[in-house]
Amino acid sequence: MAGPHAPGSDVDIDIGALTASLARDWLRIVLVVLAVTALAFILASTAQKHYKAETRLLIEERESVFTRPDANGSNSPVLDDQGVTSQVEVISSSDLLKQVAGDLGLARLEEFEASGEVSMLGRLLIIAGLRNDPVELPPEERVLKNFREKLTVYRVEGSRVIVVQFSSVDPELAAKVPNAIADAYLALQRKAKAQSDTDATEWLEPEIADLRDKVKEAEGRVADFRGGSDLLMGSNNSVLATQQLSELSSELSRVKANRASSEATASAVRNALAAGTSIESLPEVLSSPLIQRLRESQVQLRATIADLSATLLDNHPRIRALRSQLADLDSQIRSEANKVLEGLETEADAARLRETELIAEVNRLKAESARVGEQEVELRALEREAASQRDLLESYLSRYREAVSRKDRDYLPADARIFSRASVPSEPYFPKVVPITGAALAASLLIMVVFTLMRELFSGRAMRPSYRTTAEPVRQVVMPAHPEADEDADLAPVATAAVAPPREPEQRAVAAPVFTKGQVSIEDAAERLIARGASRAVFVSPEGDEGAAAAVMVAREVADAGLRTLLLDLTSTGAVSGPMLDGAKLPGITDLLCSKAQFTDVIHPDLYSDCHVIPVGNSDPARAMRAVDRLPIIMDSLTTAYDMVIVECGPADGASIKRLASGASEVVISVIEEDDAAVSATEDELKSVGFEKAFLVTPIGYEPPHAPVPDERNAA
After folding, report:
1. What number of helices (H) and strands (E) belong to the chain?
2. Could you give the angle at which helices 433-459 and 15-24 cross, rounded to 10 degrees?
3. With contact defined as beta carbons under 8 Å apart, do 581 and 574 qualify?
4. Residue closest to 631 by CA, chosen among 663, 594, 667
5. Which end of the chain is more exposed for a tag (fewer CB within 10 A), N or C?
6. Please, are residues 610 and 560 in contact by the beta-carbon 8 Å criterion?
7. Residue 487: is its pLDDT beyond 60?
8. Mean pLDDT of 2-15
9. If you average pLDDT over residues 315-320, what whole number do you get?
């Protein structure tokens, strides 16, 4: 039964055939590569040489601190990044390039095609539509177009340097053009500054004239207002009324202090006289000259009385006369003290009168100062207006004088300078003979190799059938006539015979199938498993490894039918997985049970079909059997990943089979000779454990479809 995905229907690329095609056509490849390389060398050597030169400009402020119009201003960069980029566009502008082209007479050079004449090759390109006809453009436009194609202007990243490059077949012209462009750009900068100064002077002249009139008018309004408002100015540049108010306020404070002092002194003297106490301690009384003389006379009389009292009695006329004089002196002193009191009171009254007068005058000056203050506010506004007009006039005059001075002295520094002028190049930049020749060599070699390989692929000579050879049909199975037949017949394993290809195709002698009782063929067994929807098929081989070939054949048939199929080899000899893996010793189920490998390590592709296989493995079987309880879990995992899992158990007993069969499982008995006692015993044992639907399958007479001949076998 050949499924829709038979392996023999695809093809693979034969790498050996591809490599052989390169070796077979090496002479042609070498000749073509040498021819192309020689042609490239000749063309590069004979091609017209082009030279390139460059001029570098630095955008910077050329003004010094002595000539800068605003010497106190900040020395900020003349242009930002966007400004420098804009200067690149100015340098490559059409007006500047036309000026340079006219100065150098580029229209007379054949290189710029001003005449419109082209070479024969150029005429052919025009006819083929690969090039525009230069005659369609005016001569000036043709020159400008060719000029731009040879010119490169760019800004060095992260700097204020602008590079002007030009290429030409004439090395001297290649150096002249960028230098001329740089000079023209600097001249354009100076001309722009000159125009700016001219525009400034033309604008400032009428403005200055108007400002002069405005300043004169403003200052006249200030003078008229000051004269009409009688705002007389005193010292400290203040209004006279305000100054007088300040002075009177100070005088009033002084008068108030004197009046208070006089009143306090008069009150003290009055209290002393009224109480009859001594007035000698009062400084105002003692300061009177008359009282001072009377005090002196009093002291003398007391001294005389004291002297006479030593020799005379108190009733002596002399003593009595002196005492009478002393009493008169006391009376005179008190009389003079009263006069002093009257003077103090008079002084206090005068101070009060002066204070009253000063208060009246201060009130008058307050009203006058308020009136004058309002007028002063208006005067200050007029003065500020006049001052602002005057400052603006002075600023305009200063700028006007600077502009006129720079214009008259022709001092117009451009904001750029040439720090690297182009020199006549000594070597052409195109063509580079060695790089071009090397590139032609590499490109031609690569193209020829690709061409040879593609031709070999398209011819089909490098393609071969992509198939995985299934087991070869059993050419001759020795069927023992009696149970005690020669043991050599039993030692001929069917699996080994199944993968041994015939030496000659005509020697494929297939024995006629002999089916008895319930035996089914490989194709019928595969169809039955698929029709029943079995997810797990457990094969039992009572006769040993000879019958195990049936599991391999059924697994490949199911895989060819398009189902994802896995074959698990649980035989002790690996008779199932060995032929599928060409005898390779790969990790398998024992390694998985011993936890020495993962699922991805133990699942391998069948070399001859789309089926996958898990071999016996390389670990100790006894150790693996200790973890046999994990086998049902492994089976459940494989059943979820594959459409059908086929397990070859070899001559296993019913208890072991029951452990592996669960869910949608089918039990199949592989037989070579149905009358074998082992087959009957296995049937009876399976029925006893509940597998009444187990059927028998035999590999005898099976011939796989698309069986490869020996020279078509794919070793991969």
Report:
1. 23, 14
2. 130
3. no
4. 594
5. C
6. yes
7. no
8. 52
9. 78
- Under a CB-based contact definition with an 8 Å cutoff, are residues 227 and 379 in contact? no
Chain segment 42-61, per-residue pLDDT in tens: 998 888 899 999 999 999 88
Dist. CA 178–CA 56, nearest whole Å: 9
Q: What is the mean pLDDT of residues 404-410?
A: 70
Distance CA 472, CA 713 (A): 12
Residues, the chain, total?
716
74 has pLDDT over 80:
no
For residues 327 and 265, what is the distance between their CA atoms, to the nearest angstrom?
26
Tell me which residue of 640, 638, 644, 630 sits closest to 595, measured CA to CA.
630
Cα distances from 575 to residues 266, 282, 556, in angstroms, run 151, 152, 16
Q: Which residue has the higher pLDDT, 562 or 178?
A: 178
The first and second tokens of residue 455, run together, are 């031709």
Residue 482 tokens read as: 């009696």
How far apart, in whole angstroms, are the C-alpha atoms of residue 236 and residue 234? 7
CA distances from 2 to 181, 522, 531, 703, 707 (A): 83, 11, 16, 11, 11
The span from the CA of 448 to the CA of 553, in Å, is 47
Helix, strand or coil, per DSSP, at residue 349: helix
Element spanning 530, H or E: helix 522-531
Q: Is the peptide bond before 431 cis (omega within 30 degrees of 0)?
A: yes
Average pLDDT over residues 351-375: 79
Question: According to the model, what pLDDT value does residue 174 have?
Answer: 94
Q: Are 133 and 126 in contact, with CB atoms under 8 Å apart?
A: yes
Within 583-626, strands assigned E span: 604-605, 612-614
Alpha-carbon span 232 to 234, nearest angstrom: 7
Q: Render pLDDT for 582-631 as a digit per residue (tens, 0 to 9).
A: 888 899 999 998 988 888 889 999 988 889 999 999 888 888 888 888 88
Average pLDDT over residues 215-226: 84
For residue 474, count CB atoms less than 10 angstroms from its CB and return exposed for 0-12, middle for 13-18, buried for 19 or more.
Answer: buried
Q: What 3 state SS string does 154-167 have? A: EECCCCCEEEEEEE
Residue 329 contacts residue 291 (beta carbons within 8 Å): no
- Band of residue 471 on the pLDDT scale cut at 50, 70, 90: very low
Instruction: Assign 372 a pLDDT band (cuts: 50, 70, 90).
Output: confident
Lowest mean pLDDT among 21-35, 225-239, 424-438: 225-239
**In the 3-class helix/strand/coil scheme, how is 100-127 assigned residue by residue?**
HHHHHCHHHCHHHCCCCCCCHHHHHHHH
Q: Which two tokens stand for residue 126?
A: 């025009």
Q: And the tokens for 217? A: 């008018």
Q: What is the pLDDT of residue 284?
A: 60
The whole-angstrom separation of Cα 131 and Cα 36 is: 26
Confidence check: pLDDT of 416 > 60: yes
Answer positive or negative: Cα dihedral of 576, 579, 580, 582.
positive
The residue among 614, 566, 565, 555 whose CA lies nearest residue 590 is: 614
Residue 488 DSSP symbol: H
Q: For residue 449, what pLDDT is reported? A: 92
- Give Cβ neighbours of residue 512 (< 8 Å, ≥ 6 apart): 701
Tell me how far apart the alpha carbons of residues 148 and 112 are, in angstroms, rounded to a whole number.
10
Q: How far apart are CA 537 and CA 544, in angstroms?
A: 18
Kind of pairing, strands 51-59 and 161-168?
antiparallel
The C-alpha atoms of residue 650 and residue 656 are separated, in whole angstroms, by 11
Q: Which two tokens stand for residue 451?
A: 């061409």
- Can you tell me the distance from the alpha carbon of 1 to that of 530, in angstroms, rounded to the nearest whole number? 12
What is the model's pLDDT at position 421? 94
Which of 670, 493, 655 minimizes the C-alpha distance to 567?
Answer: 670
Quick: pLDDT tens for 147-162: 999 999 999 998 999 9
Residue 512 has pLDDT above 70, yes or no: no
* Maximum separation of any 2 CA atoms in the chain, in Å: 207
Give the type of residue at 307: D
Predicted local distance difference test score (pLDDT) of residue 480:
33
